[in-house]
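Below is how a single chain appears once it has passed through the pipeline. First comes the sequence as given, then the structure the pipeline wrote out for it. We keep one example in the README because the format questions we get most often are answered faster by looking than by reading.
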Amino acid sequence: MQNCRFNISCQFLYSLGFTGSLLLTMVPNVMAQSQPGWQDWHKITGSDQPLPYSSGFSNLELGGYLEYQDICAQAASAAQEPFTYWYRLSDLVLAIGTGEVENKCQMGDEVVATYRSTAVLMGIDEPYCLRVNTDVGGGLRVRDKRSIASRQIDFLPNGTEVFSLSLPALIMTDETGRQWLSMEQRSGERQLEGWASVSSGAGEYVNFRLCDPDV
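Resulting structure:
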């Protein structure tokens, strides 16, 4: 295996055969570099509890994280080398409270396994408030489907406060990479159900902000 200095650990990881959100490979730590749409990596230490996010919102994601932890622990035991553990949050977590977290364990400078799942910023209570804050056009079009070609059903000017009914908020990515937020309810007498563009892609401008900047 290329880029694999620890043969016992590499053979161990290959034998597991996991797929999906778990990335199991011994590769140089190029992931330490910044990526569009993601914050920097943070090393997890004993003084980091609680972490600034919560995760594990479904049995599938919780089970995947437990598998990730088990894989890291077994690989560390097999290699008899100290491991370090890290996390990074997507930009959306800090901007609108819901996004993704990626965890990784590594041996020296080589990443052994990563796991990505939904994350919610700590300190947010539901229902929570988002404010429209676009950089062009003065507001957001709300559409009936997750596509810029779909029918427009409303328009939300900048400053409009939108309330999500639950956490985590439902965010979907279309085939172009555009991220869409499910609009479940709006303040005032009018009710609203549809989709609004969060951003045109990972690392691009985010069209919402948390109403409470101190969260």
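Residues 1-20, 24-28 have pLDDT under 50 and may be disordered.

See the next section for the split statistics.
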